[in-house]
Amino acid sequence: MKKVSAMAGVIMNPEKPAQSIRQLKAAGILEVMFDFGLFVSYEWIMGHRQQKKSDWTPETTRESFETAMEQFAELGFLSTIARLPFVDIRSKGIRPPQYEEWNYLILRIAMDCIRVCEKIGCENIIVQPLCVSVERGKEWEANRDFYLALASACHKKDTKILLINQCRNQNGHLVRGICCDGTEASKWIDTLNKEAGEERFGFCLDVGNCNLCGQNIQDVVTVLGKRIQAVILTENNGKEMTRLLPFTAVADRRSVLDWLGVIRGLREIEYDGYLILETVDTTVAFSPLLQPCLVPLYKELLDYFAMQIQIEQDLKKYERVVLFGAGNMCRNYMKCYGDRYPPLFTCDNNPKLWDTEFEGLAVKSPEALKELPENCGVIICNIFYREIEEQLRSMGVDKIGYFNDEYMPSFYFDRLKRAGDNARG
User: Fold this and answer.
1) How many Cβ atoms from other residues are within 10 Å of residue 8's Cβ?
2) What pairing do the DSSP bridges indicate for beta strands 201-206 and 228-233?
3) Which pTM was predicted?
4) Which pLDDT does position 106 carry in this prediction?
5) How far apart are the C-alpha atoms of 404 and 110, rounded to whole Å?
6) C-beta atoms surrounding 273 within 10 Å
7) Which of these, 78, 2, 5, lies nearest to 298 by C-alpha position?
């Protein structure tokens, strides 16, 4: 799984990215989604054309983003995923006579950016469907020609064009737009691949847009399935198109966005693509002096989502497993995965539990882990992950996995209570 940050989310100066790149690398984030929208804006071009201030050509902006890419290359930070410029769906003043000009401009810029992406080896390109200038009911016809034209501009076999789900602006309210419905988007992708004669198209799921549209995100994910190549992790209040840090749009002490649905869905399809953290509105709210302090948190969030999504995939890596922990998390493991991935035993640091039985498992001392069979993983079932991982590595155990019961496939509410036991896990 590739864990990346959106460029704007780390306040990256497009012309001088070196400082931000160093901060990201120091935190352990080794890639960003290259955002061409930081270099070229359709609204700016059209505005200047209307005022006859400039005669824009692709060369006008190509020099600036190619300069940035050279700096990325020098610092060993070239992107493998990019996002082409988007039209702001909240844009006003786009009149019907301009529609043809808009579509031509979008296609021309997209083709130019695709050429640049292939030049640097960027294989995944997120492209917004034509939406502002498309009549209702004719979305497929317009976008079919648009995306197939982009496919013809791709010369490398591995270049993937990723469609993305959109909201629609209806009298100032954000409602479901193009590619929002999982069944419709799946049909678009399958048809485009068939007509292109190759697997050229995939999907990028923006969970923030799903939230704005009031969708069941788990259902959307499972319908799209393996077509999903990238997921944008961001949050909003369900009404306004903001890009907030996950878990920060809160009501009644709970996140407004359905992260349970996101994680359950991605687990179900065994997702292993891009996780893109987009947090620009949270980041800019902080003082520039504090913004660099957020980057390590962004890395922890990406790791957290990857761990949650890959829990079951990690279990499949081992021929056998042993658990570490004999508490509530162990109980929930046995309820969720005990039948599919039965442990040999569990162990615990509490000597009072040794040589007892818990959930049908023998509870042993951690010393028993020194004599594990070949290709046996130790699954930590306790919230003190870091401490226990360090303990295991000091014992020479390196096949380590994690179980966390925050996002279980099903809920179980019977919590273990032991007299005098205040430990969590």
Assistant:
1) 20
2) parallel
3) 0.90
4) 85
5) 42
6) 21
7) 5
